[in-house]
Amino acid sequence: MNDFDVIVIGAGASGLMSAIEAGKRGRSVLVLDHNSRIGEKIRISGGGRCNFTNRDSSPGHYLSQNPHFCKSALSRFTSADFLGLLAEHRIKVEERAHGQMFCAGGAKSVVDMLEREARAANVLIRMESPLVDVHRDGAFRVRLSRGTLTAASLVVASGGLSYPKLGATDFARTLAVRFGIGVTDLRPGLVPLILTGTETEAFRNLSGISIASVVRLGRAEFRENVLFTHRGLSGPAILQASSYWKEGQTLEIDLLPGADTRALLLGQQGTRRTLFAVLADHLPRRFVEAWLDKRGGAKMPAALSTSKLERLAEELHHWRLRPDATEGFEKAEVTVGGIDTRELSSQTMESRKVPGLYFAGECVDVTGHLGGYNLQWAWSSGWTAGRYA
Ligand SMILES: Cc1cc2nc3c(=O)[nH]c(=O)nc-3n(C[C@H](O)[C@H](O)[C@H](O)COP(=O)(O)OP(=O)(O)OC[C@H]3O[C@@H](n4cnc5c(N)ncnc54)[C@H](O)[C@@H]3O)c2cc1C
User: Fold this and answer.
1) CA neighbours closer than 13 Å in the CB half-sphere of residue 17
2) Is the CB of 45 under 6 A from ligand 1?
3) Residue pLDDT, tens place only, 38-75
4) DSSP 206
5) How many domains does the chain contain in total?
6) How far apart are CA 389 and CA 349, in angstroms?
7) Cα distance between residue 172 and residue 290, in whole Å
8) Do residues 264 and 292 both lie within one domain?
């Protein structure tokens, strides 16, 4: 006889969701977590307002070695389902640009709701419970510093490596490897990028300046703001692109998307204006000064040769920068990569090799774009695992 039907590792978004769903099915459920409070990442998400989902949580907003894997869970527990849950608890929501849904009353209301739901489903939650070891001999045996607990099913919802100060560990990856389950390479995603090249020296004092741009990396393209920081680039367009970026790759920034820069610059040939004056009508002055510094200087007349103006016009749409690194897992909102989806059933989130072992949330190789997609994946995959564990 096992101590519990289901043990869930991790009291974050996906772990709590799977525990609630399993509890509602009448399973006896224990959630274990080494943190002292549940849902630490939910609390700080969306700048404290929790961008808990996106109205358009379609699979195209996710990165994975298998882009089809997320479809089943996302279609079975949708953003509308999570909105319904919030409505039942009378939690006020607000919609912002691009379908991003936030909590009007702050992220804590989502955490409190999950706690109430867990209690109603008779889920036991044991915080400050560091795990020593997990092994399986028919049942799963979870060794804690004070004794061992057994369960028929184990749901691993221990998240990725991002924000270690909030309790992130590589537990899921280590456990998977030990059970012979494949894992893809991990890298930080939704993370600021660091620049150190000579041109970028000129941008050091632009920290805080933001430009509405299109950032391209391969086939990925994001039309949002680019923000200059002391160490490089951030802002939504860069964070999105960072999830695709690999060392050595060059980003392309369109500084004036949609504008006819060729006509704009060639139209100045007969004038006495400086290039600075022309561009400063469209871009922040400090940025234009720094950008022109490497291209002939801010005092350069706009009446240049056609070929030179055409080159500059082209560069305004295709400004190429090669980041040196990301700010790492310390500053990353997510981890790209995780448990190889070929190892899991997309219908149940159960391991194909180890019956009774489930993975949910960020520890799986499914990573959302910025905008509520990662929490939606945590709800959807957690819910799915909870239906079967
Ligand atoms: C600053 C920040 C802001 C974000 N904002 C948003 C947002 O607005 N919208 C959005 O969609 N996404 C956002 N995200 C991403 C989102 O929070 C995560 O993708 C999501 O919370 C992942 O849920 P999870 O349950 O898989 O993992 P987590 O929420 O990370 O939960 C994992 C749990 O497992 C526990 N754990 C880990 N290792 C162990 C161990 N060895 N033993 C015991 N317990 C362990 C941890 O303590 C944690 O409680 C943000 C992330 C960050 C860092």
Assistant:
1) 27
2) yes
3) 999 999 999 999 999 999 999 999 999 999 999 999 99
4) G
5) 2
6) 9
7) 45
8) yes
Which residue lies with its CA nearest to atom 5 of ligand 1? 45
Instruction: Pick the last residue of a domain from 279, 309, 326.
Output: 326
Q: Which domain holds residue 222?
A: 193-326
Residue 220 corresponds to which tokens in the numbers above? Answer: 């990925």
Placement of tokens 């160490």 in the chain: 231
Per-residue pLDDT tens digits for 278-320: 999 999 999 999 999 888 887 777 788 899 999 999 999 999 9
> Is there a contact between 7 and 154 (Cβ–Cβ < 8 Å)?
yes
Q: What is the 3-state secondary structure (H, E, C) of 164-188?
A: HHHCCCCHHHHHHHHCCCCECCCEE
In short, whether 157's Cβ falls inside 6 Å of ligand 1 is yes
Give me the residue label for tokens 């912002």: 96
DSSP H helical ranges for 59-106: 71-76, 79-88
Give yes or no: residues 50 and 178 share one domain.
Answer: yes
Report how far residue 112's alpha carbon sits from residue 203's, in angstroms, rounded to the nearest whole number: 43
Same-domain status, 225 and 94: no
Domain termination site, one of 277, 293, 326:
326
Which amino acid is residue 179, in one-letter code?
Answer: F
Query: Looking at residue 199, what is its pLDDT?
Result: 64
* 317 Cα distance to chain centroid: 27
Question: 101 CB contacts (<8 Å, ≥6 apart)?
Answer: 51, 52, 53, 54, 55, 79, 83, 93, 94, 95, 372
Smallest CA-to-CA distance from 266 within 214, 204, 223, 309 is with 309
CA-nearest of 326, 386, 338 to 362 is 338
Q: For ligand 1, is residue 173 a contact (CB within 6 Å)?
A: no
* Pocket-testing residue among 166, 374, 381, ligand 1, by greatest number of atoms within 8 A of Cβ: 374
Q: Is 333 helix (H, G, I), strand (E, B) or coil?
A: coil
Assign residue 258 the CATH number of its domain. Answer: 2.40.30.10
Please check whether residues 252 and 158 belong to one and the same domain.
no
Q: How many CA atoms lie within 13 A of 201 on its CB side?
A: 5
Residue nearest (by alpha carbon) to ligand 1 atom 6: 45
* 377 and 308 both lie in a single domain: no
Residues 152 and 268 occupy one common structural domain: no
Does the beta carbon of 10 sit less than 6 angstroms from any atom of ligand 1? yes
| Claim: this prediction has a pTM higher than 0.90 | yes
